[in-house]
Amino acid sequence: MPDLFVATAASSNVTSLSPEDRRLHLRMLEAILFAATQPLTEAELASKMPEGIEIKPLLQELQTAYASRGVNLRPSGDAWAFRTAPDLGFLLEEHRQEEKKLSRPALETLAIIAYHQPVTRAEIEEVRGVSTSKGTLDVLLETGWVRPRGRRRSPGRPLTFGTTREFLDHFGLSEIGDLPGLAELKAAGLLSATIPPGFEGQPPFGVDAAEEDLLERETS
Amino acid sequence: MPDLFVATAASSNVTSLSPEDRRLHLRMLEAILFAATQPLTEAELASKMPEGIEIKPLLQELQTAYASRGVNLRPSGDAWAFRTAPDLGFLLEEHRQEEKKLSRPALETLAIIAYHQPVTRAEIEEVRGVSTSKGTLDVLLETGWVRPRGRRRSPGRPLTFGTTREFLDHFGLSEIGDLPGLAELKAAGLLSATIPPGFEGQPPFGVDAAEEDLLERETS
Amino acid sequence: MNGKRDFFEEELAPRPGDEDILLIDIDGFEGPLDLLLALARHQKVDLTKISVLALAEQYLTFIDKARSLHLQVAADYLVMAAWLAYLKSRLLLPDPEPLEEPSGEELAARLAFRLTRLQAMREAAEKLTERERLGHDVFARGMPEGVALGQATAWQAGLYDLLAAYAARRARHFASTIQMKKRTVIPLAEARERLMRLIGPSSSWAPIDHFLSEYLVRPELRATARASALSASLELVREGELELMQAASFAPLYVRRKPKEDARA
């Protein structure tokens, strides 16, 4: 049975406080340091804690308690912050990934692919009313939410696109039919325009899939 | 000398592992969860850990270890995240986010979706006795707390709505079953579309027709 | 805890009190059920034991009062009033024999159920707001290093963004369709020009519809064509260009060019 946290009461100069108070102070420090958006100096920490508390011994106690954990409490200069234990940095390495927002055109293109799949590039452009830059589709392919599905049985045999399992997972849908239709978008307040007659049942979720030759099954 | 962390080896089914291995796994999980920008599902966590590790008992062990700390490990649905302890919120007011205020109808609609899910728009309107105005459902969708869940197997195949993992995380619920008063409301037949027998006159106790098909799982 | 309810626009609790309930206007309510619930809560009993008969009477009194004060009462309130009046009669007059439809008691129980259920959801909503909420009472790590799963870039996009993008794009598409509808209005100038051209120099009487036949075959143009033609013809009469004649109300309207004074001589 491993000792998860080794609590050492290294500092004996805090004995005047009741164990409950000390415990509360430690919890407070923990929460403050955890939520902080930058390392905090002892003075800053003191200003957030009840008055007359000696911060240093508490910090040292926390530092010791976390020394053997996956996350350590570390001073840098005179400021303190929780940091991943150095030996576990490998877990984060590939993680220094940037978070990117999808551009508006990409989002729109993704939506059209989702609603109208299998859909060709020309059809996407028809709905969007503008030509789709190469980069937009590339970005969508990179997200893993869009994949080439097959080729339309029409002149030129254009490539068709559709969404992936990851798309459904990311957007919390169990199937593509769960996307709200136009009338439902309107009912939900997302679509303010009047839906012209004949469009109520739209979108039809794709041209007849039979008009398409599937590519070799992708992974997933 | 206060016990900083109470390490309970509640799960004895991990005894086959050496204490060192288990300790390493706990540290790894800790590091990953601390570093994460959002709750991670058990599947996501497993993908970051060495193969063949049972994640759940480790998570539960960490949860217990942190239960009395200033930072807690909380599940929301099948995803886990470290969060500051609720009783210490007063220390962290500076981090409070400006949030869009929910109107009374939106909040009521949110509650109906949470307690009745999966629920159609028509059913929400039946409970509220008014049609859902614009800016109610779309605002809720925008918060990310509500999502389309599927389609009811009834004429018109209406879209159903339910809550998301972000909803659980935001309101500090580990699962939908933790909604305040859910069991009582269900037992009283108040989450049902049909009136429980003997409703008028006496308090509705011991009603068993309460389990109506409103809460039936949708196809997924 | 302080500010716990910050994220609502208004408190849930305040509802009109007993004494003023008959004085306030109906706009404070979100529909008949909301109003009924407010009235029911004034009976101050368990909603499951509420007197639906008394409730129906209160509601009807309320609506009568509002109407006597010349307040606008929306249609759905009146529909509910009619239904409650019916329910009242069903409750007062015992059913002579079992009918196909539900009995008065069953209808009353159903109403009591709906009120209880709505009340339960209101309370549930309130309980939700009392919880310790993320970003308000409970906080995430302030400096997460970030964990990526598999991919080099974490793409951010929510379902709402996706749906909103799609709706906006389709709406733009529809907007152009709607603009075509605008052309279904016949402007006054066009009607005037047309009348003058078609009537020509002829000074014999002809039904005004005769000059509009091209428009009148299209149902969507009928009203606008008639309206514009009538306005234009009145204008032309005032200017001394045309004469109008009608035998009786709603009879066909005849029009001709006003004969020139000198032509009579």
The CATH superfamily of the largest domain in chain A turns out to be Winged helix-like DNA-binding domain superfamily/Winged helix DNA-binding domain
What is the radius of gyration of chain A?
28 Å
The helix/strand order of chain A is HEHHEEHEHEHHEEHHE
> How many individual helices of chain A?
9
Strand content of chain A: 15-25%
Mean pLDDT of chain A: 80
What kind of oligomer do you see? heterotrimer
Q: Classify the secondary structure makeup of chain A into a structural class.
A: alpha+beta
Share of residues in helices of chain C: 40-55%
Shape of chain C: flat
The total of beta strands of chain C comes to: 4
Provide the low-confidence segments of chain C as ranges: 1-5, 10-23, 177-181
Largest sheet entry of chain C: 3 strands, antiparallel
Helix/strand structural class of chain C: mainly alpha
CATH class of the largest domain in chain A reads Mainly Alpha
Q: Tell me the CATH architecture of the largest domain in chain A.
A: Orthogonal Bundle
How would you describe this protein?
The complex is a heterotrimer, with two copies of chain A (220 residues) and one copy of chain C (265 residues). In chain A, helix 1 packs across helix 3 and helix 5 crosses helix 7 (134-143). Chain A is built from nine helices and eight strands. The longest helix of chain A is centred in the N-terminal third of the chain and has 17 residues, at 19-35. Chain A starts with 18 loop residues before the first helix and ends in a 6-residue tail after the last strand. Chain A folds into two domains: 19-87, Winged helix-like DNA-binding domain superfamily/Winged helix DNA-binding domain (Arc Repressor Mutant, subunit A), CATH 1.10.10.10; 100-216, Arc Repressor Mutant, subunit A (Orthogonal Bundle), CATH 1.10.10.10. Chain A has 220 residues and is an alpha+beta fold. The N and C termini of chain C lie far apart (99 Å). The radius of gyration of chain C is 33 Å and the shape is flat. The model of chain C is unreliable at 1-5, 10-23 and 177-181 (pLDDT under 50). With 265 residues, chain C is mostly helical. The chains are: A alpha+beta (220), C mainly alpha (265). Chains B and C meet through helix 1, helix 2, strand 3, helix 4 and helix 6 of B and helix 1, helix 4 and helix 5 of C.
